[in-house]
Description:
It comes from Haloarcula rubra. Keywords: Membrane, Transmembrane, Transmembrane helix. By secondary structure, the chain is an alpha+beta fold. Helices cover 17% and strands 40% of the residues. A hairpin with a 5-residue loop joins β22 and β23 (364-365). Mean pLDDT is 86; it is low at 420-433.
Amino acid sequence: MTQLPTSDGRNRLSRAHRLVRAVRAVRGDDRAVSEVVGAILLFGLLMSLLVLIQVNAVPAQNQQVEFEHNQRVQQDMLALDGALLQTGTENVPASASVELAARYPSRFFLVNPGVGSGTIETTAPGTVTVSNAHAPSAPTYWDGDDRTFETRLVRYRPNYREYRNAPATVYEHNTLVNTFASGATVPVDSGSFVDGDQVTLLLVDGQLSTASTGAVAVETTPLSAPARSLTITNETDDGITISVPTTLSETQWESLLADETGANGNVTDVVVAPRTPHDVLTVTLRPGSYRLRMGMVGVSGNTDDSVLGPHYVTADDEPFAGTLREGESKQVTVRISDRFNNPTTGDVTFSSPDGSFVRPDGSVVASLTKSSDESGRVAAVFRPTPGFTGTTVVTAERDFDGDSTVQSRERVDLSIPVGQTGATGDSNEDSVSGINPWSDESVRLESVALDGGANTVTLGLYNNGSVDREIRRVRLLFYSANSGDPAEWGKLNGSDDDQFFRLSDWEQVDQSIVIESKTPEAVTITFDDAGNKDFFGIAVQYNGMSSNYFVQVP
């Protein structure tokens, strides 16, 4: 028989059950607390991870973004280089877009720095100097004295948050350069202003300074363009020197000009000297002839217009190598150029002590003022005074700079023989035959041929006389191009030693060119530029006679 628990026993059992339930409740609460603590620890871990990413990964990623932007902006500056060159050589406005600041990608739960800004600007002006240069077709301006011009460099300056040693990128003289805060410089491309016998000086003007967080369009405007080729030579036995402002070192310029400084190059010396605000590069050229092209391009509206406009006047062609007879009229032409040798509009006044000028309406005046066309040319019809014989001078002049004095560069004198005809076939070497002589004792011009690819004209001469004739001196009287600019020089039989220039004095012939009696002879003239339908005049001095040939290129 089972014994029932007593009252005390039941109480003890009840307390035991309550104790068990309490212990179980406490164990349940512990599990809940553990879950909360775990969640807190996990949140803290995530926050720590975000902090680490914000402090380390985000700056590193942004630095990469900025580096890639810097690479792109260098390409933008190369495009600006191309726009400047196009504007200066083709006389057309152009534009280049430059991305001034980097854009950071969006990041959830992370903070990006504020968008930075970049600046594109022109620097303080520096001086370009060309020394010891003589131009046979512009001798009163390019006379060997220093010719100075101002130019500016174009610079992009970044303002990055993380890419601390990012370079500024600078355009200078057909070359793009990265300059670092440490003073180091690195060329971005291999451009230069000297290429063989061609020297290109593209000057920049304008006070540009633009800071932005986005891309900006840099407009390039022609101020003096297109850059016309002008033949220059050294005035003295020393070579021509050219000095330009630069950010590059002497060693870097020697590297850029490596192709020009070798045994077959034209650069004999490269020197960089410290100056303010820019260092100065001076390049010395080997004595000889060079084609100089200069232009000025604006990169903002704040340009110095005082350096523009007419600066000097030269003879354009000289189509009166023969004799002007009484009662005849002749057109004379001059060209107005700016200080960069490019054609410009302006006025000149024609006058002569021994003649008058015919207006378009047929009236005759003692002096005539006319304006040039877009090519810079001004033409006037000259008529000698009845009864005058001899050599008269037609003067074209203008006080371009307004200083109340007509300087030598602002005046050109054209000599015109009137009423005289030269003898033919006598013993005087200074006697000049008529145009394209055909007498018994003449050296005839019988044929003309053009090798356009080589700019070479072949003259078929025939000595119809009884005496062998040796060419001793030559002179290029004029050159009229069917299109483009006229030739500046020619080389007899392609010889550098027998180079002669348009409108210059007689050139002694060093080589032996003999045209035997009753014998044909082919003589070539290689010009700097020659084309179909061009027309030129050349005077040739032989032993015992001289002849003028007017040549129509087929």
